[in-house]
Design a protein that fits this description.
By secondary structure, the chain is mainly α. The protein contains 12 helices and no strands.
Length: 296
């Protein structure tokens, strides 16, 4: 059936699958209970490491980086794991998982900023305006105030989006240098396991069988989301399908309502969602228009 579909349709299906997987990851993080964040991150990446290793081995691909990419792998892994820690902490400690997911979706805007600073990619005025709008939307979700009991988790979620944006900038740069995306997933997973393993050795918190199952499912969903989005951008360019990644917020909100105690975001958060998504949609159509003008 997939063979009869256009590449763009295949890309949309893959990115929707990825968004569903990442929303499932958020739900299982929450369901696993009040376990230490490093312990959750360890199991998330242990599963991803296994899947990435099997993928590289079965495809007979090399377990080593492309020439000149090692320093970028280290930078990508450092910023990436900080992003994962921020996202996991926010997902566990915020009362609405959709809020944490929305803050993580700031990563494309951070990628624009970091790409301008480090890759010398020009940010046009409309793109800068979209970034500003997204940050204003984020403030509605975070609600910065010492009276806000969720201020620290909100800031962690914001930092998670920043870390992810920095990591994606490194991935973009390595992709331009010809790095294998499967090895990038493998290296990040191995790095994350190595960094979090000492915590488990000295501070391991016993888990029930159900909690262990939820953490394994966190890893399965994370790997599914990672490979889904990789496949999506293989079928179609970002300018044609990236906006569909924001379906993750819808999936997360639905799962939060039905499986996590009828979570309903407050009015300010919903307005923040709308502003951030509106900026993303605007950028989507702006990038398509710019591409069409360049081809003309």
């Amino acid at each position: 059936m997939m063979k009869s579909l256009s590449n763009k349709t295949k890309g949309i299906i893959c990115i929707l699958f990825s968004a569903l997987c990442f929303s499932g990851m958020s739900s299982f993080i929450n369901l696993s209970g009040d376990l230490p964040t490093p312990q959750k991150v360890f199991f998330r990446n242990l599963v991803a490491l296994f899947i990435a290793s099997v993928t590289l081995a079965t495809r007979h691909e090399k377990f080593r980086p492309a020439q000149g990419c090692m320093k970028y792998h280290l930078l990508r892994s450092t910023t990436g794991i900080l992003g994962v820690f921020g996202n996991f902490y926010a997902t566990t400690h915020m009362s609405h998982t959709a809020d944490a997911a929305m803050l993580n979706k700031l990563s494309p805007f951070f990628t624009l900023i970091f790409s301008a600073i480090f890759l010398r990619e020009k940010v046009k005025p409309k793109q800068a305006l979209a970034i500003l709008g997204a940050f204003l939307g984020a403030m509605l979700v975070i609600k910065p105030s010492f009276a806000n009991t969720e201020l620290m988790p909100s800031l962690a979620g914001f930092a998670g989006g920043l870390g992810a944006g920095a990591a994606y900038t490194c991935v973009r740069h390595m992709g331009n240098k010809g790095e294998n995306s499967h090895f990038t997933v493998f290296f990040f997973s191995a790095f994350s396991v190595a960094v979090t393993a000492p915590y488990l050795i000295f501070f391991y918190q016993p888990m029930s069988g159900r909690q262990l199952l939820y953490l394994i499912l966190v890893g399965v969903c994370a790997a599914g989301g990672q490979y889904g989005i990789t496949a999506a951008y293989t079928f179609a360019p970002s300018r044609e399908i990236s906006v569909y990644d924001y379906s993750n917020i819808i999936f997360t909100a639905i799962e939060g309502y039905f499986f996590l105690g009828h979570q309903i975001p407050d009015v300010l958060s919903v307005v923040g969602y709308f502003v951030i998504c509106a900026m993303a949609v605007w950028m989507f159509f702006y990038n398509k228009k710019e591409h069409s003008l360049r081809k003309a």
